[in-house]
Structure formats: C-alpha cells, structure tokens
Amino acid sequence: MSSSAQNQVPSAFDPDAAAQPGGGIFGLPFTRTDSRVVIFPVPFDATTSYRPGTADGPDAIFDASMQVDLLDARFGPVYRQGICLLDEDPRLRKLNDHARSHARPIIEAGGAEPGDPEFASDLEHVNRASQQLNDLVHDHTRSVLAEGKIPALLGGEHSTPFGAIKACAEAHPGMGILHVDAHMDLRDAFEGFTYSHASIMHNVLSRIPQVGKLVQFGLRDFGAGELAFAKAQGSRVVQFLDADIARSQLMGEPFVKLAQAAIAALPEKVYVSFDIDGLDPSLCPHTGTPVPGGLSFNQAALLLELLRESGKQVVGFDLVEVAPGDPDEPEWDANVGARVLYKLCGLVLPR
Predict the structure, then answer these.
(1) Which residues lie across from 214 on neighbouring strands?
(2) What is the 3-state secondary structure of the chain?
C-alpha cells in the first residue's frame, strides 16, 4: 500500500458514524490486502506468574475499539492507511491451553529449576509450546514484512512478541527497541520457563544479535540480577526508571525532555514494545502484574508523538498484557488498550 493509502478508503465509509456490525477493528472496512498495518492477535498467557487473563486481551480490545473515534488529536486520521486485525489462529489458543495446564503446577510451587525431576516433564511441555509459538509468530511476521506492510502484534503476555522482534531485526539489522514497561523483563528463564513473560528482553538481547539497542522507559519493578544484566550490556541498553522520571518532574524538569532523551538514544529504525502496565495501574487495573506509579495516558501519548516527530522509522510494534475485567464490570482496560493501539498505528503513518 502506497503513501496515498487514504485514497483506498471506500467512498461509502463514514468515519464519524457508529461502527457497523461485521466491521474490522475500530469498525474499519479493510482486509489484509488493502491494509498497511496488519495486526496479529496472540491469545497466549501460559507463563503469567501472578494473574492470568491477558489471553483474552485481543478479543476485548477488538470489542472496545468500536468506540474509538478515528480522528486522533495527535496523529490525525490514522485509519486512512488501512488497519486490519487478523482472525485468531486456532493453533495459538490450543498451544496456550496446553502450556497453561503444564505451567500451573510450576507457578503454584513458586517455580522450578532446570533439571528438577518433579517438574521436568511440565517444563519441557511449556518450553516446547513457547518455541512453537515463537516460530508461528516469526513466520507470520516475515510474511507481513515480505508484503511491504507493517507487522503489529496484540497479546497476550509479554513473551508473545519474541518471534516478531526477531523477524523485524533480521529484516532491519541494528534496529532499536523502545520498550515501555513497569518491568525490565531481563530475568533469565524466570520460574524455569525459557520464554517467560518476565524474560522477553533477556531473550531478545541474548538470542537476537541484530537488535542494536534497547531503550526501556518507565521501569519501576526489577531485581538486582536484572539491573546487573542490563549494566553488563554497556551502551546496548539505556534505561529510564520511573523513580528518576518522577523525581526529575518534581524537581521542575519537564517530561518532554526525558522523553526526547529516550528517543534520541534510539537508532534510525525502531520497534516499539508497549506493555500496558507501563501505564499508571488506574488505567489497566486487571493487567497481569500491576505496579504503582507509571505513565499517565497523556505522557505515553506524548512519548509516541515525539517518536513520530523525530523522523525515526518504526518498523513494527506490539501491545501486550491488556487483560479484561470481570464480565459484570464496565470494561476499562480494553478501552484504554484500544486507544493505545490506535496511537501505535499512528506511529507508522506514511510520510
């Protein structure tokens, strides 16, 4: 799809009308063929160590997206480039159900060490399922890139985008990652799971050499081992802790300067990995591992806007860890998630 993507919008489509039954995400009329942004739903949360539910995030965000107005105050008519959410691959749900059943006893026991005879079989099942997931996501992302489109992933827990990051890094060697998160996710095989949600960035740095830089923003929960691992990476990892961001603002430094510093540390090609728990938990109360503090919605939106204005090229992105609340509660997490997703789509608008 070319930079004249807005000419592909069907003339009968009214962006100000209510979303019509049978429409795509955000109520849009696009298919994969005529979309520039192709979103892959990954309903997988097998290694979530505190509170599961993110496997249902993609469906909840799809439902909530019907209430998103399509003229974004920061990015304009994002929808015109063409955005579609693919149907769920049934293999992914089966992998999640299988892996979750084997992960549950390990999580309830507080984790397992490699070679632990009590849990060796369960660990093997979970790790094999996670590798199959990675392969499926990697192959899908490669196919989207081969079509000249922008790959996006909608999780699911934070382990899910490993294959997407790998495919994007192979296509764009030296790319950087802007990682918005409450957690560093630098634990080595947390609880014994090679591809734990808490290990995604450790695996990226250890297993994807084409990733040139990791810039982490909003961090506020981490262990000493994670911090030591980050420091051992030297200039390959740049971190902006939530405590430092808050202190700087309380001392009078504007948020925009900190956001600009994070963006300046990135190379010209960027992948964005956005964990919803990077936000204040009042915006995502049902996410798997909520943490006090975090970014306001407007701070996160400004960070993304500044990335867009920097001229750096965003080559792919993911949104993970959105979990819907109880069915009898008004939906909130997915409403926030749908609006973050729309702004992420705004990052890749043709210039």
Answers:
(1) 177, 237
(2) CCCCHHHHCCCCCCCCCCCCCCCCHHHCCCCCCCCCEEEEEECCCCCCCCCCCHHHHHHHHHHHHCCCCCCECCCECHHHHCEEECCCCHHHHHHHHHHHHHHHHHHHCCCCCCCCCCCHHHHHHHHHHHHHHHHHHHHHHHHHHHCCCEEEEEECCCCCCHHHHHHHHHHCCCCEEEEECCECCCCCCHHHCCCCHHHHHHHHHHHCCCCCEEEEEEECECCHHHHHHHHHCHHHEEEEEHHHHHHHHHCCCCHHHHHHHHHHCCCCEEEEEEEHHHECHHHCCCCCCCCCCCECHHHHHHHHHHHHHCCCEEEEEEEECCCCCCCCCCCCHHHHHHHHHHHHHHCCCCC
Q: Residues in the chain with pLDDT < 70?
A: 1-7
| Confidence (pLDDT) at 7 | 44
Q: How far, in Å, are 11, 136, 269 from residue 175 at the CA level?
A: 38, 22, 5
The whole-number pLDDT of residue 187 equals 97
Nearest to residue 197, comparing CAs of 342, 339, 57?
Answer: 57
- pTM higher than 0.90, yes or no? yes
Neighbours of 139 (CB within 10 A): 11
pLDDT of the residue at 51? 85
Distance (Å, whole) CA 302 – CA 307:
8
Query: Residue 50 has what pLDDT?
Result: 85
Pairwise CA distance, residues 335 & 264, whole Å: 30
pLDDT digits (tens, 9 = 90+) for 131-190: 999 999 999 999 999 999 999 999 999 999 999 999 999 999 999 999 999 999 999 999
